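In practice, a research group might receive sequence data for several interacting partners and want a quick structural hypothesis before committing to experiments. The following worked case mirrors that situation: the sequences arrive first, and a predicted assembly follows.
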Amino acid sequence: MGTYVLRRVLMMPVLLLGLVTVAFIVSRTVPADPLSTVVSERQLNNPEVVRAAEKRWGLDKPLTTQYVLYVRNLLRGDMGTSFRTKQNVREDLAARLPVTLELTLASMAIAVSVGLFLGIIAAVRRNSWVDHLARLFALIGSSLPVFWTGLFLLYIFYARLGWFPGPGRLDPRAVGPEKVTGMYTVDALIAGDFATFGDALQHLALPSFVLGWAVMGIISRLVRASLLEVLNQDYVRTARAKGLTERTVIVSHALRNALIPTLTIIGISFAVLITGAVLTESIFSWPGIGSYAVESSRALDFPAIMGVSILGGVIFLVTNLVTDMTYALVDPRIRLS
Amino acid sequence: MNDGKVKTGRYVAALVVAVAVVAAITAACGGDDDDSGGSGGGNNDRPLVIARDMDINSMDPSRAYCDTCQIYLTATYDTLIGLDPKDNKTFVARVAEKWEGNADRTQYTFRLNKKAKFADGTPLEAKDVKWSFERLANVKGSAAYFMDGITSIETPDAQTVIVKLAASDSSFLAKVNASYAGIINSKVATANGASNAKDADTTDKAEPWFLKNSAGSGPYTLASYTEGAEIRLARNESYWGDKPALKEVIIKQVKDAVTQRQQVETGDADIAMQIDPDTAKKIKNKNVTIKEVPSFNFVYIALSPGAKDNKVDLNPKIREAVRAAVDYDGIIQVTLGGGGKKQAAPIPNGFLGTKNLALPKRDTAKAKQLLKDGGQPNGFEIDAIYPNVNVYGVDFNTMMQKIQADLGEVGIKLKLQPVEFTVWVEKIRGDGIPMTAVYFAPDHTDPIQYVQYFGMVPGAPWASRAGSKDKPIVNQAEVDLSAKALAASSDEEREKLYESIGKEMIADAIILPIVNPNLVLAYRSDLEGMHYSACCNLEVQRLKRK
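A structural hypothesis for the assembly, expressed as tokens:
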């Protein structure tokens, strides 16, 4: 497996260069004007201001020169300065990634734990009211658009009932913990600040549930279908015939085999949520990667678009690699080569 | 089912435990909210929270250019003169305790207050004013044009600044009153990469430094800025002027109006300034005060006879027909629930010279006659390309669909094409757009900015867009009148001149104002001093809790 992983890791820079090239060409050929991000609309007729802006942001150079310069700087670890935020893109991503990671990890924790639980009971109690209820819950979660769920839950649980806090990562007047990882829950724990930890956890609850619900529907349905298929296999019948408890049969024998397709979905969902939790981030005022990606795209902020593309590419490649490695761990019959 | 099977009851029990955990978290959350829903207890130490969809383009005073920037810069950088919020017209002393312009408005002298000092204790002197104005001009940011026409800035002593201009400019005081003309601590800024040199557009490297620091003499200093999340302002404890009441001000990123409303209702936010009139009507909370005030923003449609893709003879009669066919009252009702006003000229209501201008009104019979007179008796089809935005509570799609229906009644067919703003900019800078819809907010308090942007005068963007880059449309009367207005020294004279300019701009019928939306100020009732400022959006130093 070591050789396989090494080969995959060595392939990553080549794939990323391809991604950079495609992203560069696509973003530059869009019929839109990035100058509107750095020059106000009413100054776009002022040639002096426009010239200064083009020069400052490197837009006065031919596309091929811009590409070569970008790749050269990238190899030095410089992702450029965002037209929009005026910060180094690497710093922007470093500030926003932990925010999204915190939200995604919490969402995936909810999605995986509840999704597995619902999928298992739905399969074990097939066609019972438990099965119907679990499937209905899953169906609603994966069918409702997250923006609707988010706004609805905010309205009910924040504005009306006051059970959950509103948008943001902490109470609006609170100061965040000292940055170590950038994830407030983790940093608060490291600092031993349990009040901030509780505040951060409460603010994490609604957005992570909204995101997690959407993914848990897919996971529970997949687990149910896979488990039902596995439960009819001969080896499961043999296990039961040997007198093993139903818990052992399901957890140790059936579930392990049924998890393979689920792992794929978990891996893909994780990668998608890192860059795609746009609406949830926007509704809950979480300054994460998703909202950064959308705002950058709308502003045609080339350096930021490239940065997000590269980050997204890395996340997908790493997630896929980890998923493949997990296959081998879950199912000893699979040998990576 | 055999005995070994897991019982349904066990799953249910597990589910109950899970729900209980969630309930415990929610119960813990519930405790805090009631406090914030209260009055705030008259405690000015409690941070003030402003919920806004922030449009920050820079935190550097010489490069910033946005509504949120105006709030931030006003709080952290004093300007030479301020604006009285009572009438949004009268200039008041700030860093300059006295000022005067010469007879033909080519020279302005400012006498600085000796008490003025920066937040770090350094005295604010004439050299800082000179340096700040030169940097604003030379970095060539979006507000650089404020300094156009300056030939020299003299500083005969530490408290005197004399600005000389190449031509008369009666709007200069309005420009130096704008938040973009705030005075920077030149020593601190220079030490951090700033430059006022001619080549500052390439040599100035201070913008990243300004993301984390302020260097002004204002009542607040920048405590922290987290892009996409919040701006925190700390009271300048050694402020040289009247010390502000509130210890800390936080501007929070909250994207949509509905959430802003929820936050101000729960007390999580003290102020929400981007709630549309329709949403405001739904607020029935006694702890929230809703005030609808006139704004100086407006939304307009524009016709460009010279646009490359235009296939219609958009002569003055046809343009006048379009104006007569629009149902202004209906649009204000549909888009803002009645929370706006009609506007006569591309100079907003409330600005000098606008009070006697005739407001547009719908007259379909007149529109049909004008179409006939203009050579299009059967109407025509035209592309309407506009940015797909919702600004000042006006959803452009809703507005344009209504205009499409209105014009359709007289035979004018609109082909609506909503596009992203960056795409719109590409088109308007390229071949032009036959018909579009846009919005405008003032940079300062002088009406000349509208003439220089919307007027058919050389150098004005819309003169080129209406005609072509090589051959802009020019209305000589506007050119002459605006030159006189810039040289005029009395407000009475300027008012008459701007009224005449307004009439000329109406006759141009290139820019057709649709609505001047009201601004909704939604804020906690324990707050005093809430206002809308024409120069600065909101001056947080004027706020305090009861």
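Before designing any experiment, note the following. Chain B has two domains: 49-287+525-545, 298-518. Residues 1-41 of chain B have pLDDT under 50 and may be disordered.
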